[in-house]
Amino acid sequence: MKLTGKTAIVTGGGGGIGRATALRFAKEGAKVVVADIDSVNGEETVKYIRELGGSSFFVETDVTNPEQIKELIEVTVSKYDGLHIMFNNAGIGNSEVRSVDLSVEEWDRVIDINLKGVFLGIKYAVPELIKSGGGSIINTSSLLGLKGQKFVSAYNASKAGVVLLTQNASLEYGKYNIRINAIAPGVIDTKIIDNWKQNERKWPIISRANALGRIGTPDEVANAVLFLASDEASFITGTTLSVDGGGLTF
Ligand SMILES: NC(=O)c1ccc[n+]([C@@H]2O[C@H](COP(=O)([O-])OP(=O)(O)OC[C@H]3O[C@@H](n4cnc5c(N)ncnc54)[C@H](O)[C@@H]3O)[C@@H](O)[C@H]2O)c1
């Protein structure tokens, strides 16, 4: 097992990529704290982990709220005696409209969750990772953090921000043996793409727009996150790993 003795937090752990990763971490021996704004789905992830024989609990958390992230880290450290892995994964999409038609409220909400949420995760996890003698932070960016697409201005900007925030933090905290990387998933089969699936004209194109000609699964992303979290990635920091079936090069 690759994560024996480690404690991990997964934000957005009630949803597709977060849940798959929480389960993957638990199967590799980690104690997993599931954080999500959605308590029903978050508790369900915990239930699945416990059914596997893993150790886990849920903390209702809005990643835009500094006090709640602080508390999430505090309760994790007090119950599990330390923190080693932080997966800053919670995120939302944005309505597909031109920038001029995007409301300022929606812009703020997308940037708050997708970018400020990652900043807060780094801000409050790093001091505990230093106490643990090092660790790994993985931030969820997107294929759309690496290339522009029409009608998703806030999402594009938030996810591009995650790439450089990851580089910045990796430079600041490498000397404490903390590795900080991002993943950039392509189209992955989760709730977030439900409205794309309803679009009969676009979906056949979107769902095949990569070298492999198919969408990815949450488990395929979880495998990449596990690699970055584990000691197998011991000399990898500051990078953004595409998990997109070749979507970036398509
Ligand atoms: N599915 C894709 O195609 C895809 C592609 C690239 C990047 N991503 C990114 O992957 C991450 C996970 O998304 P997913 O695809 O699993 O979708 P999902 O909707 O299944 O999961 C997202 C989870 O985040 C939670 N969440 C939303 N706002 C929150 C908040 N303020 N605080 C705490 N939790 C909150 C939701 O309740 C949900 O459980 C997101 O950052 C998303 O942008 C997804």
TrEMBL record:
Keyword rRNA processing: no
PROSITE patterns: ADH_SHORT
One GO process term, biological-process aspect: bile acid metabolic process
GO molecular function terms noted in the UniProt entry: oxidoreductase activity
InterPro entries xrefs: NAD(P)-bd_dom_sf (IPR036291), Sc_DH/Rdtase_CS (IPR020904), SDR_fam (IPR002347)
UniProt keywords, alphabetically: Oxidoreductase
PANTHER family attached to this UniProt entry: DEHYDROGENASES, SHORT CHAIN, ESTRADIOL 17-BETA-DEHYDROGENASE 8-RELATED
UniProt similarity note: Belongs to the short-chain dehydrogenases/reductases (SDR) family.
Protein name per UniProt: Short-chain dehydrogenase
Organism name: Neobacillus cucumis
Taxonomic lineage from the root: Bacteria, Bacillati, Bacillota, Bacilli, Bacillales
